[in-house]
Give the backbone structure.
Amino acid sequence: MNKIENIVELYRLVSSVFDYKAKMLYADSEHREVGCILYDSFLLKCSINDRNGQFGAGIVLGDLLVPAITQFLGKHCSLDSSSESITADLLMIDEYCRLRLPDKFLEAYDRAYTELRQT
């Protein structure tokens, strides 16, 4: 198991898993946080805890003072910081986001970005 130990590795993994679905991807090394906008609709923030190295992720609601959604269809992220576990957590979040968006939007979004990548 490859353990994700720093923000650069987490940034690369988030970028790899979400690809075109993630916009405005950023890494904040001071707060050990990676974030992005998923599907032009959801603000995702991920981090690796300094003390115990645990992974955490949540979708931030409209106001940054409001707690983030950290439970996705009854499941929490595993806290394990292995790349395999984080990938599974990010895919769970991806599925959650896709279920919250209309099918017509997802079809148009996927089509638009697939076409852009082919040009």
Remarks:
- DSSP finds three helices and six strands in the chain.
- The first strand starts at residue 22 and ends at 28.
- The first helix runs from residue 7 to 18.
